[in-house]
Amino acid sequence: MTVSRTAAQVLVDQLVINGVEHVFCVPGESFLPVLDALHDSPITVTVCRQEGGAAMMADAVGKATGRPGVCFVTRGPGATNASAGIHIAQQDSTPVIMFVGQIDRGMKERGAFQEMDYRAVFGSMTKWTAEIDEPSRMAEFVSRAFYQATAGRPGPVVLALPEDMLSECVDIPNAPEWRQVEPAPSADDVARISALLSEALNPILILGGSRWTPDACTAITRFAESYQLPV
């Protein structure tokens, strides 16, 4: 059985389901319904002085936990201020989800105050940028954002939230909890690497990238020691 909720409430419920405990924002009138829903949720909200700082704090959470850091910024200049943090997340392969306020759907393509094409602005520095025009798809989009931010090479995702859409009520179920998919080499890949290492004269292991969890560090240490590889 489902209960009618605003799209903003669905968004916040999905964040809770996916284990988000802390979000960062610079409040704006374009996403007030989300702020109301956050007020009644267990999520801690840190209000920042500038949007770039909010995005960088979300980036820090992503780096520290391996889970998507979440931030909210308002439309127009608020979004462009946050671009520095989004660029850092893209360059550093950090999972970040940024929600951006947007003008009412009926005002698009009219040169409305602070109107912006977020796909054009953020498309080159994110893994996925989208706009949620249908409130009935809110749970779907938020769930997909978690997978997009963490699948393969991690990175930032931007979702735009039209202001009028957030207040609409929908009767939809929650999406399932996001589960991180851990990439791993196949048995054939492992055998091929083992053969190459056994024939190499002076092999060396050069590490980089992200997702260096304690378990990953332990595993790579065992691997390096077993082949006597300098790191």
List the helices and strands and how they pair.
Elements: E1 5-6, H1 7-17, E2 22-25, H2 32-39, E3 44-47, H3 51-65, E4 69-73, H4 77-92, E5 96-102, H5 118-122, E6 128-131, H6 138-150, E7 156-162, H7 163-166, E8 169-170, H8 187-199, H9 214-226
Parallel strand pairs: 2-3, 2-4, 4-5, 5-7, 6-7
Antiparallel strand pairs: 1-8
Helix pairs in contact: 1-2, 1-6, 3-4
For the structure shown, list the relevant keywords.
six-stranded parallel sheet, 231 residues, single chain, alpha/beta, two-stranded antiparallel ribbon, Rossmann fold
Nutshell version of this structure?
By secondary structure, the protein is of the alpha/beta class. The protein has helices at residues 7-17, 32-39, 51-65, 77-92, 118-122, 138-150, 163-166, 187-199, 214-226; strands at residues 5-6, 22-25, 44-47, 69-73, 96-102, 128-131, 156-162, 169-170.
Structure overview:
This protein has 231 residues and is an alpha/beta fold. The protein has two domains: 5-170, Thiamin diphosphate (ThDP)-binding fold, Pyr/PP domains (Rossmann fold); 187-226, no CATH class. The chain is 42% helix and 15% strand. The chain is built from nine helices and eight strands. The protein has helices at 7-17, 32-39, 51-65, 77-92, 118-122, 138-150, 163-166, 187-199, 214-226, and strands at 5-6, 22-25, 44-47, 69-73, 96-102, 128-131, 156-162, 169-170. A six-stranded parallel beta sheet has the order 3-2-4-5-7-6, with helices on both faces. Strands 1-8 form a two-stranded antiparallel sheet. α1 packs across α2 (32-39). The longest helix has 16 residues, at 77-92. The chain is elongated and about 65 Å long. The chain starts with a strand and ends in a 5-residue tail after the last helix. The mean pLDDT is 90.
